[in-house]
Amino acid sequence: MSRLERTMNRYRSLRCSGIADELQELVAHAEANAVSYLDFAEQLAEREQQVRERKRLAGNRKRAQLPPGKQLEDFDYRHQTTITKRQVHALLDFGFIDNRQNLVFIGPPGVGKTHLAVGIADKALDAGYKVLFRNALELVEELELAEMKGELKKKIAQLTRFDLLVIDELGYLPMSRQARYTLFQLVHAFYEYRSLILTTNKDFTDWGEFFHHDNVAVPIIDRVIHHSSIYMLGGESYRLREKTTAG
Ligand code: ADP
Ligand code: MG
Fold first, then answer.
1. What ligand has the least distance to the C-alpha of 111?
2. First to last CA, the chain
């Protein structure tokens, strides 16, 4: 084994595979260019940091489970005129995540709610945030399963490790009392701690109905809504459009 190989192995055993993989090139470059010791030391550290950051982002992206094909670049604001590009791009400094605020996209089917939610989540991943995408019903099934195993708290704790949870299609179908309870526990755990993006076809006046006027859940949902930026997306529905201009 050459000295170079032995050194590479040492870096690998120190879990510095970024340095190990590039060592030959870095050394050759340093020798050819009379790179200073300090510059060389810096280059090694930089290389390792870059590789680790890239891996971290790739891992975050894999865990996020975003549905494919909904890039923000592909969103057509000439088609969807009830939200502007300026409004959407203003969200991409991710102040809403840093401040534990939520986004809610409300509107009838097909107006681009999921596309926007996923497009924003995709950019949050690029910016280094930990994101998870879930359809509301799938999420509730997961929570109910955890509840049955007596592991709801643990499951919710796992979910709060994400900076941003996208819950898609909330309120499309009625949920059992048990389902609403688990969902409520989750929303409560996220309150002022982590961010949510919700997409829903419900108007907020329906939230009380959704939680069956539950006098614990409704006030908390109200507080969540108060920590949210709400975007009413139209297209077909005049009912929603009128509400937007009124509100
Ligand atoms: P919603 O979630 O409001 O029901 P989606 O976001 O799923 O709607 O949009 C339905 C389909 O139309 C998706 O394939 C989405 O990518 C596309 N779409 C919707 N609005 C736009 C838009 N303004 N520009 C480009 N594609 C759009
Ligand atoms: Mg949708």
1. 1
2. 73
Pick the residue whose CA is nearest to atom 9 on ligand 1.
112
Q: Find the ligand nearest to 85 CA.
A: 1
Per the rule left: phi > 0, alpha: psi between -120 and 50, beta: everything else, 177 is: alpha
pTM for this prediction: 0.88
CA 104 vs CA 44, 229, 236: distances in Å? 44, 6, 19
Which atom of ligand 1 is found nearest the CA of 77? 23
Q: pLDDT tens digits for 141-164? A: 999 999 999 999 999 999 999 999
Report how far ligand 1's centroid is from the alpha carbon of 38 (Å).
52
Whether the Cβ atoms of residue 66 and residue 131 lie closer than 8 Å to each other: yes
Does ligand 1 lie within 6 Å of residue 199's CB atom? yes
Specify the 3-state DSSP secondary structure of 198: strand
Residues 6+ apart with CB under 8 A from 202: 106, 170, 171, 210
Beta-bridged to residue 182, according to DSSP, are none
- Report all structural domains of the chain as residue ranges with CATH numbers, in order of start: 3-64 (no CATH), 72-246 (3.40.50.300)
* Tokens linked to 137: 């019903």
